[in-house]
Amino acid sequence: MAHEGTAIIISPLISLMKDQVDALQAQGIAATYINSSLSASEQKTRLADIEAGRYKFVYAAPERFESGRFMAAIKQIPIALVAFDEAHCISEWGHDFRPSYRSIIPNLQQLPNIPVTTALTATATSDVIADIQTLLQIDSEHVIKTGFERDNLAFHIVKGKNKPTYVQSFLTEHPEESGIIYTATRKQADTLKDQLEKRGFSVAKYHAGLTEDERKQAQAAFIHDDKTIMIATNAFGMGIDKPDVRFIIHYAMPMTIEAYYQEAGRAGRDGDHSDCILLFSPQDVQLQKFLIEQSVLDDEKKQHEYQKLQAMINYCHTQGCLTDYILDYFHDEVSGGKNCGRCSNCRQLQERVDITEEAQMILSCVKRMDERFGISMTAKVLKGSRDNRIRQFGLTKLSTFGILSAYTEKAIAERIQFLVAERLLATRDGKYPTLQLNQYSVDVLTGKHPVFMYTAPIPEREQADYQEDLFASLRNLRRTMADEQGVPPYVLFNDATLKEISRYLPETKEAMLTIKGVGDKKYEQYGEAFLEAVQAWLKTHPDVKKPVRVTSHQPSPPKQEKQADERPSHVISYTMFQSGKSIQEIALIRDMTSQTVESHLFKAFKDGHPIAWEIFFNTDAEAAILTARHNTDEPKLKPLKEMLSDTYDYTTIKAVLVKNGFM
Ligand SMILES: [Zn+2]
């Protein structure tokens, strides 16, 4: 910051001021905070230092501006900037507007030396900015808006998945990465924590139902890397500044894009690639509508909230670039409709699979069950489960019983959830939501509306272009040193810096100082211990070649995303088949229909790959089908199938035709 004088940062959470100040001090920047956690004499010392202009940054809570002593101190010094952290709190358009926060405005106006420049943090919408400008009488040219785009964040929307299963798969794919999972309710947070803990994940939780002590402990455990995952309601993390949060998962849709972007924005503050995943289900919409209805807002404000909710719902359904959608929402001038290339829509990570037939089977099953049951009972019937409840209700007699027995119950339930997410099937709310057909279901049943499902793979872990074991041991060293000093680990060095050390393996002080994030001050305080760790590691790895750096201040090389499997889809299925997997297994693993997998195998055969046909038919069957084909005027699949009645299924007939070059 080029301004002369002191920057005053107004921050709503006193518990985090210390961390922010520690981080600045570790970089050799004079910073302090004033809040009620300090003793009277400590406050006095700091105020004297502020008055003497010894600080570049002063952090204070809004209430502090009611203190005469504090106001007297800051009246004495040149103020470079007043910055509002979590600026939305100040505006009546903010989603968690706090009247107490707004009360600092008249106090600020009393300052003879109030600077014309105001900074606002990233989640202020145009509404909020305009509101604050009016309150403080600031011209637009004096508002610094920190840019909205965060080009290290990849947004993902995931629909129609079983949420707990998805989360577990994600965490397994991303071990030891720090992340936050936001849930909509305390109960969700409690349940999910139990589930994950049982499976051995390192989890803390944070919500308003816990005591202040429990919350403090959870937060500290997360910041100090004792727990890697935080499960929290939106009560968590106001102003949290842990830079190496690698992912944010929203377990349910938040109410507004502002809230979403603010929470998602807690990921990747160190600039490293991070994933922001929103798990969408239609029930989320009901919950948010209910919350708006129950609120004490007047009609105009309620209308405003509904509009914002609709924008959030549209985000979950857009086919366009998710980053663009968000920037557009905030009217960010920087955007301009270029696709980000990172989000789940841009990368088209999803595979489009025709599930019209399965959808019809599901819908007709719901109908046959008289629309009286929920997802899990319906899935059981389709699977052909003979559990007690199914027999008790006489559901084994239905014509749809076992009609999808080739799928697992979980895969069936996922497809039902997908139909609900796409509003092709409705749910009646209640303690046990039941499935019901709607007007769109009819279109699907009558074949007017084909159904395509997009399968969303788990975002993959960034491929390491550094020595992972060294990185792990540097992290341990950092944690030990941080614990000794009672500061969060990231205050020493952030993950990006440790990765760069593990990549370039500096052996001297000079080499160490070329690493991004290692300045003179940091080196003086912590550098040697890390240098020694690298030297020791190199002794045990004499064969490792160091990558050459082009110049000392070159930014780190672009990260290599793990290459997606670029072989054609049918070749992937074929290879799996050749390795001994059955068609059904491949269908489940690749989240496709069996028919799709079959057509992949047949395509591979036409490409010249051998197929063991005896898996599909024996010589008798082949002869019978070829005879039938010879004897029909219309050698097409359907009439052939009708001729051969129930003896052979479509797959067998197709296989014979493909093998003999008729298809
Ligand atoms: Zn995009």
From TrEMBL:
The gene is recQ. Residues 464-544 form the HRDC domain. It catalyses: Couples ATP hydrolysis with the unwinding of duplex DNA by translocating in the 3'-5' direction. Residues 559-568 have a biased composition (Basic and acidic residues). InterPro entries: DEAD/DEAH_box_helicase_dom, DNA_helicase_ATP-dep_RecQ, DNA_helicase_ATP-dep_RecQ_bac, Helicase_ATP-bd, Helicase_C-like, Helicase_HTH, HRDC-like_sf, HRDC_dom. Residues 1-142 form the Helicase ATP-binding domain. Its cofactor is Mg(2+); Zn(2+). It comes from Lentibacillus kimchii. Residues 546-568 are annotated as: Disordered. Its EC number is 5.6.2.4. Residues 166-313 form the Helicase C-terminal domain. This is DNA helicase RecQ.
